[in-house]
Hints:
Layout (H helix, E strand, L loop, with lengths): L9 H20 L3 E2 L3 E2 H10 L9 E4 L7 E6 L10 E8 L9 H9 L8 E7 L2 E7 L3 H7 L9 E6 L11 E8 L4 H9 L3 H9 L3 E3 L2 E2 L11 E4 L3 E11 L5 E8 L1
Antiparallel strand pairs: 1-4, 2-4, 3-4, 5-7, 5-8, 6-7, 9-14, 10-11, 10-12, 12-13, 13-14
Amino acid sequence: MIKWTSITxxxxxxxxxxxxxxxxxxxxxxxxxxxxxxxxEWMDEVLHKYNxxxxxxxxxxxxxxxxxxxxxxxFGYDQSYMEMPICALKVTVxxxxxxxxxxxxxxxxxxxxxxxxxxxxxxxxxxxxxxVIVMKEMAxxxxxxxxxxxxxxxxxxxxxxxxxxxxxPPRFKECLTTVPSLRVDAIFAAAFGLSRxxxxxxxxxxxxxxxxxxxxxxxxxxxxxVGTLRGYGKMRLGAxxxxxxKDRLHITIEKYI
Length: 257
């Protein structure tokens, strides 16, 4: 049983209330219900933090492809039921010779239509434009009203099958190093080429996260944890490989490229 008064983070509290209600409603009404998009690592961390993994009978994460960063949490999902709560859009932009479009350009155009951020999943940049994962209920609206990306007005938007998406797996650059401990400040310093004092300053300014959550410098990381530092990138703790004679830890850091 969750003690609601002990939860100080309002986003976590609202998320937990939502998924508990959706799970109960899905079981009573025998229908599928899903949340909006959240960071997948953040959802995993919240479920683990409040011991909720075993509280639900039938649920799954869904982001459109295996490595999706933003996903929805679906309750009562039945594989025989073909109507999924999310879909993929292929946005083709004829830019000619000009500045390459960015993730911000596509997101800005979508938000400019009045869409809320939580209705939009991953945006995957491609030579032709981008794949955009969205809530199914928003697809028709976007196809009809998205007429430009940035200054480019020659675009087409079509709904496609997830199977038709060409998505490459994430690429990493592996780095073997040693750290004095598994604290966030030590690992981020090694991963991003910073001093620990610089990392502490960034963390105090809410510029660093582990598994989608803001953390303090002393927060311990474990194998598989994903860290991000604004302006420096994203990394994953791949392995802890033993200790040195001076009791430093041999670790493998995987930096996303």
